[in-house]
Write a structure and sequence with these properties.
This protein is mainly alpha-helical. Helices cover about 50% and strands about 10% of the residues.
Length: about 375
């Protein structure tokens, strides 16, 4: 009996240890094997060479007719830098993505007032091939610039010998985000350099641009207190939007003032879903998941409570909680499931099942956006 009892205790202890290890892996992201495999699959499917020393993330799902976006370039640089920190991302791969970004920068304005243009450190938001050469559009998208800047900070940690170079570039890009993509009245970021003070879109905010972890990094690198003001203002406006509906859902875009925010109407800037929880707002849970700010935590917990009550996370919702579509997309599921994995103490049991599915499924090779957000979730946040 004593031997049997001892055996039971040993088995119980092993099960308990296995449970603890599983929970740790689940909370921090996927297992190292899952992370490596999904990153490698994603890179093989979406990263293409423009030249011997430049590469880009193809967002078109068609390798014969590729399209590069600053958003995709930022995601690619971010993932590659995280892979570098984990020990299996190559610096050469990062630098080729970096070289592409540096080649396709937006024209800037000379601060000395002299004739002639100079290049800013913002990335031109879109490039495509006309069959003979790359055609690029000389305006920016703030979300891409934010990811590129934060990736440079991560790259400085991944490859310390090049830290000075990466940090110098991060500071220059962070400075130009403030020069060209900042609304000094509302203390919020605009959606791009084209939404300047003369534009009717100057007071438009993209909710997925609320990135408190990134903003903290930029403040620590630049010591520019405007990043603290941006953090406060954008989180306050996101809280306003979250509290407007019992669901806690926030829209893709909102009009902001110094003290309030209002969801955009349909077709205000990008699509009929501009005022819904759609393809931009779906990133919000992931962008807030690891923030220690109580406002970020309040917004993400309200979102998780809503989604945990649903039978499945489907592709978009009105702010009142009505499904826009009855099908599922990983660009909606993965960010929510990742956020739930960071708040396990609240026991979002249904969402934890989604997270387990996200960890083990193969990377989609013909859905750039879904695949990219999935791999970002699986790779996890790097502190």
């Amino acid at each position: 009996m004593r031997k049997d009892g001892k055996r039971v205790w040993i088995i119980a202890a092993c099960i308990a240890m296995l449970y603890v290890v599983t929970m740790l892996l689940t909370r921090s992201g996927g297992s190292v094997t899952n992370q490596y495999e999904q990153y490698a699959q994603w890179r093989s499917a979406y990263v293409m060479q423009e030249s011997d020393h430049r590469s880009f993330v193809n967002t078109s799902n068609d390798r014969k007719h590729p399209v590069a976006l600053s958003e995709g370039q930022g995601y690619g640089m971010y993932l590659t830098a995280i892979a570098g920190i984990k020990g299996w991302g190559r610096q050469q791969d990062y630098d080729e993505l970096l070289n592409y970004y540096l080649t396709y920068r937006v024209d800037g304005v000379r601060v000395d007032g002299a004739d002639g243009n100079t290049k800013s450190y913002l990335m031109q938001w879109r490039q495509h091939s006309n069959g003979h050469q790359w055609i690029s559009q000389d305006s920016s998208a703030t979300d891409g610039d934010l990811y590129i800047a934060y990736s440079l900070n991560l790259a400085s940690k991944a490859w310390p010998k090049s830290s000075d170079q990466y940090m110098k570039l991060e500071r220059k890009l962070a400075s130009d985000i403030l020069n060209y993509e900042y609304n000094g009245t509302t203390h919020t970021l605009t959606v791009g350099n084209w939404a300047d003070a003369t534009s009717k879109y100057h007071d438009l905010m993209r909710t997925s641009d609320v990135m408190p972890t990134f903003f903290k990094s930029f403040y620590e690198s630049t010591h520019d207190r405007r990043w603290l003001e941006i953090t406060d203002a954008m989180l306050d406006r996101l809280m306003d939007l979250s509290e407007d509906h019992d669901t806690g859902l926030v829209p893709d875009f909102a009009w902001v003032s110094e003290h309030d925010a209002t969801a955009a109407k349909a077709n205000a800037v990008a699509s009929r879903y501009d005022g819904d929880y759609s393809s931009n707002a779906c990133r919000v849970p992931m962008m807030l998941a690891t923030s220690n700010d109580p406002r970020a935590r309040a917004v993400v917990l309200r979102l998780l409570q809503f989604f945990n009550r649903q039978s499945a996370v489907t592709a978009g919702y009105t702010l009142a909680g009505k499904q826009l579509n009855d099908y599922r997309l990983n660009s909606f599921t993965a960010p929510v499931a990742y956020a739930a994995s960071q708040h396990r103490e609240h026991r979002y049991d249904r969402l934890q099942k989604d997270w387990q599915n996200v960890l083990v499924q193969p990377v989609e090779t013909n859905r750039y956006y879904d695949a990219t957000l999935t791999v970002m979730a699986v790779m996890g946040e790097v502190d």
